[in-house]
Amino acid sequence: MALEDGKEPGITIRLIQNRPLPLRLLQFFLLFLVLGLGVSIISMYTFRYFGIQNVTGVGRSNIFLPCFEAPNDLENWIRPPSNLLHKMNDTELFWRASFVPRIKEYPYRRVPKIAFMFLTKGPLPLAPLWERFFKGHEGLYSIYVHSLPSYAGNYTPSSVFYKRQIPSQVVEWGRMSMCDAERRLLANALLDISNEWFILVSEACIPLHNFSIIYRYISRSRYSFMGSFDEDGPYGRGRYNWNMQPEVTLAQWRKGSQWFEVNRRLAVNIIEDTTYYPKFRDFCSQHVMWMSTTSLRC
Ligand SMILES: *[C@@H]1O[C@H](CO)[C@@H](O)[C@H](O)[C@H]1NC(C)=O
Ligand SMILES: *[C@@H]1O[C@H](CO)[C@@H](O)[C@H](O)[C@H]1NC(C)=O
Q1: Mind listing the pLDDT tens digit for each residue in 146-196?
Q2: Nearest-CA residue for atom 2 of ligand 2
Q3: What is the rounded distance in angstroms from the CA atom of residue 124 to the CA atom of residue 204?
Q4: 127, 130, 210, 222 - which has most CB atoms within 10 Å?
C-alpha cells in the first residue's frame, strides 16, 4: 500500500508542472515527489527482501510479482540471504536449512566458503585481529555471530561483523541451550548454499595461521575436526548414563570440547538429528555436558 500512496503524488506533479505555479507550491510538490520516490524505493526493497527470505511465499499482492520475484531464476537460490535476521523459529529454521540438492554437480561455478560461527556472550574483544585475518579474502568466508539476545553489537558498516548477528536465544553454558545455539548457528549458516565448511569459534579463539593457509588446509582435507577422547574415570566414562542405551553405548561414549570444524554434509546431519538429540537432552545433566566457562579456550 505504501508504494501506491507514495507514487500517486509523484505522478500528479508531473502533469501539472507545465502550468505556471507559485515557486513555494512547486517546492512543496518537489518535496513530495522526493518523499514519494523514497517511500517507493524503501517498499521495493522491503518486498524484495521478503521475496528472498520467504521461499514458500505468503499471500502477496499480484502487482509486485512480475517486478520483484523471478522464481525461475537460479540466482535466487544461490545468492546468500541479504539479511541474517528472520522470523523462523528453530523448528522452521532447521527444516528449511535441511534442504539438500540431490544432484551433486553444481550448474554454476561455486566457490566454497568457510562459515566462521562465533558463539559468544557479547562483545568480541579480538575483533580487530579477526578483521585483519579476513582482510582481502572476501568471497571465501562468511561470518555468523550468536550472542545473548540482549547484546546489540555496535559494529561499524566497514566491519566484517556488521549485521552478522543471527536471531539468538539465551545460552546457559554447559546446558542443552548451548547445543541448541550451536545447531542454530549451523542452520543459519546452511542457508547460504556456498558455505561448505563450518567452524565453531568463541570470542577467545585466536587463528594460529593466516587465512590462506587455513582455507587451503580445510578445503583439501577429507576430514572434519572435533575433540573426542575415550577416557576412564569420573570425568570420562564416569559421566555415561546407561539410559542413553541403545542409541549411545558406553563404547561409543566420548568426551571433548565443543569447538569443531565440520563439512556441509555433517552439518546437515547435526541439524536433522532426532535420534541422539533427545538422549543428550534427557540424560546429560549440566555437569555431564563437558563444558564450563574454562573450556572457552580453543
Ligand atoms: C515453531 O512454530 C511452529 C508453528 O507455529 C510450531 O509447531 C513449533 O512447535 C515451533 N517450534 C518451536 C521450537 O517453538
Ligand atoms: C600466509 O602465511 C604463509 C606462511 O607463513 C605465507 O607464505 C603466505 O604468504 C601468507 N599469506 C598471506 C596472504 O599473507
Answers
A1: 999 999 888 999 999 999 999 999 988 778 888 999 999 999 999 999 999
A2: 210
A3: 8
A4: 130
Specify the DSSP element, H or E, that contains 76.
helix 75-78
Helix 264-272 vs helix 176-190: angle between axes, to the nearest 10 degrees?
A: 130
Name the DSSP class of 183.
Answer: H
CA-nearest residue, atom 6 of ligand 1: 91
- Rounded Cα distance between 23 and 87, Å, is 47
Of 132, 137, 211, 213, the one to substitute when testing ligand 2's pocket (max ligand atoms within 8 A of C-beta) is 213
CA distances (Å), 145 to each of 29, 115, 117, 236, 255, in order? 45, 10, 6, 31, 25
Query: Does position 228 have pLDDT exceeding 80, yes or no?
Result: yes
Indicate the pTM of the whole model: 0.74
| Residue 17, strand partner residues | none
How remote is the C-alpha of 194 from its chain's centroid?
A: 12
